[in-house]
Amino acid sequence: MALKVLSALDTAKTQYYHFKAIIVAGMGLFTDAYDLFCIPPIMRLIGRIYYSEKDYEVPVRVSSPMVALALLGTVIGKLVFGRLGDLFGRRRVYGLALMLMVVSSVGCGFSICTTQQCVLVSLGFFRFLLGVGIGGDYPLSATIMSEFANKRTRGAFIAAVFSMQGLGILMSSGVTMVVCSIFNAVQHPKDTITPKEADMVWRLILMIGAIPAAMTFYWRMMMPETASKTSSKQPRTWKKVLDVSLSQIAEGVEFPPNPPPQYPLLSREFFRRHGRDLFSCAASWFLVDIVFYGTNLVQSVINDKFLPQRKDVNAYEDAFAVAKFQALVAVASTIPGYWATVFIIDRIGRVKIQMMGFLFMGLALFASIAAYLHDKSKKGFLILYGLTFFFSNFGPNTTTFIVPAELFSRQIPVHVSWHYGGIWEGWGDYRVRWVFIDFA
């Protein structure tokens, strides 16, 4: 049954269910981006409240760990929840990751007490837990869409899921601007540099991130488990999903009596079969994230020259300016980059987009340095800075999300034979050979 369902999924026409899966899986990435990228304006507010004696500036020794803790959590979450997803199923573990995100978002807002040190320790702890939940969501969202999509549009569908990250960045900026505008309009007295309500504003912005996570949890629990986990147990469910009769997904392949040899994850056999693919995917993702997160999460520091002087504005206007700049970058370059990949990836392929993206990202970064040093108006720098984000997303930031989901998905050993590269294959690893068929 498993092979027939997967084959039916691969050849199925694009239908309503595919778009529903994009929204449900994509809402996880939307929430991830909101929670990760709302931190720059929030650090401005925290600086206003707790560092008034230091020109309202959060020291680097404090702001850097606060950003890094969430990212450290994502690394742990990806490893832990990715493995749990293979053992216990995508839906159950995905729900656990989302619940952790909900609890952590609320916990960030209710960071204990109001003293400087206590607040920062509490916020750092809950940001770490939030990162663990976000890390769990990343691989599961990609895997879920990969296992639901057909092979003709799989790249576009997974890219569409990932593009929700751009909308999450935009939403985090939009929520920050709306909340700050409301509190700024009603504050009294008007000339207060750091209103006492500002301590409530940054907490509110963080807690709002729990809303899309909670909505995603409900929708995700309404979806069936992916085919690689339940196709042999839920044929009637997949009949509804695929809009085909049960006879069309009946098992038509006989399995030999002796199963293929098994090997553990961290074994010589695993690295012989998959080591090169695993290293290539991990190294590419590592390199692009140095740029993507490094420039996004400290965007307000990099672009301080384009923001108003803090002594001239109050806390709300300061955070509003950071969020506004972040939103403009997202609209002008980040989001278009995601959607350029969605429309083009299945036409020109993953490798070409990734190579092109890395090349133009490097050129834009080198050129932006020259523009920053020699262009007094800094307009050239802004254009090149935006191009860095465009080619990051129309390039390796998106493809590094897609390729692993296609290389290492559908972990089902099957007895099939096909011809590839002049060699007949029998029992083997279905995950890797499925990709060969797709890309041939």
Automatic annotation (TrEMBL):
SUPFAM superfamilies: MFS general substrate transporter
Xref: InterPro entries: MFS_dom, MFS_sugar_transport-like, MFS_trans_sf, Sugar_transporter_CS
Domain Major facilitator superfamily (MFS) profile: from-to ranges: 21-440
One GO CC term on file: membrane
Keywords: Membrane, Transmembrane, Transmembrane helix, Transport
Subcellular location: Membrane
Transmembrane regions: 21-42, 62-81, 93-112, 124-145, 157-185, 200-219, 278-302, 322-345, 357-374, 380-403
Entries under PROSITE patterns matching the protein: MFS, SUGAR_TRANSPORT_2
Name of a matching Pfam family: Sugar_tr
Molecular function terms from GO: transmembrane transporter activity
Topology in membrane: Multi-pass membrane protein
Coiled-coil residue windows: none
Record field: catalytic activity: phosphate(in) + H(+)(in) = phosphate(out) + H(+)(out)
UniProt record similarity statement: Belongs to the major facilitator superfamily. Phosphate:H(+) symporter (TC 2.A.1.9) family.
UniProt name for this protein: Phosphate transporter 18
Organism: Actinidia rufa
